Please model this.
Amino acid sequence: MWDSKKSVVLSIVCTRVIIVFAIAVAALLPFLIDRGFFSGSVFRISDIVAGKLMPLYYALCAPGLIALFHANALLMAIRSGDVFSGANVRYLRVISWCCFTAAAIFAIGARGSLALLLIAAAAAFAGLIIRVVKNVLEAGVDLKDENDYTI
Model:
């Protein structure tokens, strides 16, 4: 039977797979562009366009990987049963700021591209939703702390 513990473990595995994938793409991207990987039948974009998107990808690596590592730490805390803690609030705060940073990078890198502007809007929306969840969790931490000091 599927339960919340299995769901957290699946989320941890997925997060770690994405971390490895992002690092591998960052390491292999120049090689893939040099070999014409993106002009094949799968991606159908020119190597020139791929080369122009490469700086955007590298600019997004830092906030993306920071967010992924903090998401992994958050999931590990949840798996160990530590849900309502100040550390988890900080993890969500960092993740939300990473989303806002990614939104700004996409907006700056869009240069008239509607698709990238829509991705920037989606990243900003994700950051906003994570901020709301962070605020809810922070209120829960305050309630838990207050309850712990009540006799």
Notes: The mean pLDDT is 90.
